[in-house]
Amino acid sequence: MSIKKWGLAIGGCLVIALALFAVKALQISAAMKQAVAYPEPMETVEFAVATPDVWIPSIEVIAETLATQSIELRNELAGVIAQVHVRAGETIKKKQLFLSLETSEEQAKLAAIQANLKLAETDYRRMVSVVEKGAASESTKDQAEAIRDSLVAAADELEATINKMNIRSPFDAIAGLHSLEVGQYLMPGELLTTLVGVSDVLWVNFSLPQQLAKLNIGDLVQVSADGFYTGAREAYIIAKAPVADTSSRNVRFRAEITNSDGLLISGMALVANVPTDAAQNGQVLPVTAIRYDSNGPYVYRLEPLESGSQRGTHRARKSYVELGGERSQQALVVDGLAADDIIASVGSFKLREGILVNALLPTPSL
């Protein structure tokens, strides 16, 4: 092929390329003009204001109430029930009779011993007088004294047995449920009822992992029972187990809680909010404002636009933060924010750095 033909081919290609470039440039120019006519993208979100607060890091654990005085009342001796003095759920005073077993046989034996004791006491005094006059030996008096003392001991033993068959409360208490009936035969050691002491305070027992068991005597914990009573009650640590459980490595604690209204009873399950570290200062936000990526948690701060802006109210700025904990759908930010910062909350997932934002007040909860 001649040089002339090569030149014509190359020139034709250049003309086509220039024509295509001109067409594409016209298209891009038209698109840019069209884009300028469109408004800047904008997202609508609800906002929250960073509120300064002081939080104490804590952990929630299951706790159990326990009466300060509580026993299982049992009979020491076998016998037939003669009388039940206290019904289930009634209040019983200290040393008040709860239950009496049949003691007619023991009472008859005691009467016989007391009669013999009266005679033995008379014989002993007579022997003392005779010995003083020299009409009898000292051994005769000693024998009479021994007979008298043995009868005294036998009478004391029977009286102790009769007392054991009259079962009394060792303290002011409320009797638990029971189904005892007159005429019922009881074997030794049978469970009669549970006695729970009458008191304005209860114990609250709970366990903590060994790495969190840093409470001291007198420290405060918050105790609550969702669905049973509203709010939380204060309890103060009164005891700490000297050893950890070898199977769970947990440490047991006991707190004392006021129960003057009698709403709590022994054996109830509660939730104890236990402090685990020193107080932290920070800014409180709803958890919906916190976002996460590979670099950690962050929020979108909303910077107000200059007055006169036709669209939007703020511009979003991504800010990484350090969290101190969460509770009740709230998060504590310990670093990265200042008080009164305006933060995107509901809808923050739609934002990106620098985007135009229409910020709305939070929707009131029903």
Summarize the structure.
By secondary structure, the chain is of the alpha+beta class. It has 3 helices and 24 strands.
List the helices and strands and how they pair.
Elements: H1 3-37, E1 42-49, E2 51-55, E3 58-67, E4 70-74, E5 79-84, E6 91-92, E7 97-101, H2 104-132, H3 138-164, E8 166-168, E9 173-175, E10 185-186, E11 191-197, E12 201-209, E13 220-225, E14 229-240, E15 250-258, E16 269-275, E17 280-286, E18 291-293, E19 296-304, E20 314-320, E21 322-327, E22 330-335, E23 342-344, E24 356-360
Give your account of this protein's structure.
By secondary structure, this protein is of the alpha+beta class. Helix content is 25%, strand content 40%. The chain folds into four domains: 1-37; 42-55 and 280-360, conserved putative lor/sdh protein from methanococcus maripaludis s2 fold (Beta Barrel); 58-68 and 196-275, Beta Barrel (Elongation Factor Tu (Ef-tu), domain 3), CATH 2.40.30; 103-164. It has helices at 3-37, 104-132, 138-164, and strands at 42-49, 51-55, 58-67, 70-74, 79-84, 91-92, 97-101, 166-168, 173-175, 185-186, 191-197, 201-209, 220-225, 229-240, 250-258, 269-275, 280-286, 291-293, 296-304, 314-320, 322-327, 330-335, 342-344, 356-360. The mean pLDDT is 87.
